Amino acid sequence: MSKQPHRTRPLLHTPLNLGNAGIFRTYMLKRPPGQPPSLCNKTSSAVQLIHLPTNTVVKSQATRSRSQNRKIALQILAEKVELLQKGDESRAAIVAETKRKRKASMTKKSKRKYRALEEKKRREKEEAEISREGEEEGRGEEADELPRR
């Protein structure tokens, strides 16, 4: 067994730890759009976070739990602040670039595959036409060569 070198990936750093400094939290009444207030739950489970230094606002009402929504909103806020601070070197930008490259590669492979299939089909069709023409020419000559009685 030969040992192949272990391929290493570039390490993605963890998102920023914002802590509580400069973050303003509000808990809002979760209301689905378009429904009358009497038909919706009246719990304040939606969370809105404002990062004061960058003036970035994030709202989350993904779950019914206030604490889970707060965690989700903090993750989203950390990603947004990191994207603002680091730009193309941020974790979100690196992940998006990797996904974009993977999608482009898949599209390229798909085009190559179907182009090859179309080429094969076209070649088979041309060969069938050529063989059909050859058979028709051969029949005409055979009819002329038949002996007359």
UniProtKB/TrEMBL annotation:
Keywords: Hydrolase, Mitochondrion, Transit peptide. InterPro entries: Mito_Transl_Release_Factor (IPR052405), Pep_chain_release_fac_I (IPR000352), Pep_chain_release_fac_I_sf (IPR045853). Residues 41-118 form the Prokaryotic-type class I peptide chain release factors domain. This is Peptidyl-tRNA hydrolase domain-containing protein. Belongs to the prokaryotic/mitochondrial release factor family. Residues 98-149 are annotated as: Disordered. It comes from Coccidioides immitis H538.4. GO terms for molecular function: hydrolase activity; translation release factor activity. One of its GO terms (cellular component) is mitochondrion. The lineage of its organism: Eukaryota, Fungi, Dikarya, Ascomycota, Pezizomycotina. It is found in: Mitochondrion. Residues 99-114 have a biased composition (Basic residues). One of its GO terms (biological process) is mitochondrial translation. Residues 115-133 have a biased composition (Basic and acidic residues).
